Amino acid sequence: MEFIEVNTHELILLSVIGVLFIIQVIYFLALYNQIHTHNKAVRQNKLSFSEALPPLSIVICAKNESENLRSFLPSVLEQDYPEFEVIVVNDGSTDESEELLSALEKDYPHLYHSFTPENSRYISHKKLALTLGIKASKHEWLVFTEANCYPVSKDWLRLIARNFTPGTDIVLGYSGYERGKGWMHKRIAFDALFTSMRYLGYALAKKPFMGIGRNMAYRRELFFQQKGYSAHLNLQRGDDDLFINKIATNKNTRVETDVNATVRMKPIQYKKDWKEEKVSYMATSQRFKGSQRFMLGFETLTRILFYLVVIATITLGILNKHWLVVGIGGLVWLIRFIIQALITNKTAKELGENRRYYFTLPIFDIFQPLQSLQFKMFRAFGGKQGDIMTR
After folding, report:
1. CA gap 358, 64 in Å, rounded
2. Between helices 323-350 and 8-27, what is the axis angle to 10°?
C-alpha cells in the first residue's frame, strides 16, 4: 500500500500540517467570522439595542481637504437624525477650506468650524485639532470620522446610536475604500478588510484593543477622565488606536457592522501615502496593552509556517513519488482555503465591499505578512524619526 512507503520525515510534516491547520481554523471560526456571526444574531433579533436617539457631536479634523469637504461633508450634514452638530477643525489649511466651511455654515446651521493656533507646532496637530473640537462640542456622545470619508447612507448616525446602551462607552464601526483599479488598490482594499476583521472581531469577542478614527464614537466624559491624549502627545498618531486601547474594556465597547453604518474613502493614489500610514500604525501598535497583538502575531506566524510546511510536504512527496502524501498536503491546504474564502467573502459582502477574493486570496494571504515585515524594516532603519515629534 502507498501509506506503508511514507517515511518518518513525511509523517512529521503531515503531523505539523495538521496542528497548524487546526490553529488556523480556530482563528477563522473564532475571530475572523465574528462579524458574520454578529450580523446573523442581529437578523435573528438576539441582540438588544437602544431606542433612544441622544444628541450627537461629530468631530472632524481637516487639513487642506477642501475638495473632500466639498464632496463628502454634505453626506454627514444631511444625516437622518433628530439632533446633531458637526464640528470641523481647520488644521492650518492653505487651500479653500476656510472659505468653503464659512459658506457651508450658511446652509447648514448645525455646522461649526474652528482652527488650530499657529504656535502649536511642537505637538501633534491632529490631536490638538480633535481636542479643540471635543472641547467645543455640546453633547455627551462624540462621533468621529475624517474629511476624506463619507457615510454610505443617511442612517449612519441612527445605526451608530442604537448601540448607546447604558453600559456602553465606545462604539466601533467599519471603514473601507471605494473600488479602485490596479494591483495596489486591490492590496490596500484587502489590507483594510483584513485589519477590520481582526480588530472588530476582537471587539465582538469582548476583547477590544483598538479603533480607527474614520468611524467610531465614545462618550465625551471619557475623554476628559483620561485627560485627553496626554498619555501619548509626543506621537504623531494614537488619537484613535492608542486612545481606544487605553479606555476599551470587555464591557464598555460595542460594534456596529450593518452595511448602512459603514463609511467609504477614496482609493489611495500613491503608494508612499499608504506606506506612511502603515509605518505610523507600526509605531503605535508597539505600544498596545493586552495580549491581542501577540495573538495576532501568532496567527501570522502559524499562517506562514502552514504554507512553508505544505510546500515542503508536497515537494518531498513528489520527489519520493508518494502521491498520497502529495494529495493529503494539497487537500489540507484546499480545505483551509475554502474556509478562508467563505469567511472573507461573506464578511466583505456584509460590509458592502464590492470585491471578492478567490484567485488573489492566497497571494494576499502570503503577501500581507511580508508587506508588514517590509514596513517594520522601513520603520526600524529609516522611518523612526517620524514616530515621535521633536520638542
Report:
1. 38
2. 10
* Grid cell of 32 as nine digits: 475572523
Residue 189 domain boundaries: 46-288
In a domain, 382, yes or no: no
Beta bridge partners of 111: 86
Q: What are phi and psi of 85, to 5 degrees?
A: -120, 150
* Per-residue model confidence as pLDDT tens for the chain (391 residues): 444 467 888 899 999 999 999 999 999 999 999 999 999 999 999 999 999 999 999 999 999 999 999 999 999 999 999 999 999 999 888 889 999 999 999 999 999 999 888 766 546 778 889 999 999 999 999 999 999 999 999 999 999 999 999 999 999 999 999 988 888 889 999 999 999 999 999 999 999 999 999 999 999 999 999 999 988 877 878 889 999 999 999 999 999 999 999 999 988 888 888 888 888 788 788 889 999 999 999 999 999 999 999 999 999 999 988 999 999 999 999 999 999 999 999 999 999 999 999 999 999 999 888 877 777 776 666 655 445 443 3
pTM: 0.91
What whole-number distance in Å separates Cα of residue 368 and Cα of residue 23? 18
Q: What does each C-alpha distance from 230 to 123, 124, 127, 234, 289 come to in angstroms?
A: 11, 11, 10, 9, 17
Residues 240 and 305 in one domain: no
Rg (C-alpha) for the chain, rounded Å, is 23
Count CB atoms within 10 A of the CB of residue 313. 25
The answer as to whether 16 is a domain residue is yes
Total of domains in the chain? 2
C-alpha distance from residue 336 to each of 29, 86, 301, 339 (Å) = 11, 46, 16, 5
Yes or no: say if 177 and 266 are a contact pair by the CB < 8 Å rule. yes
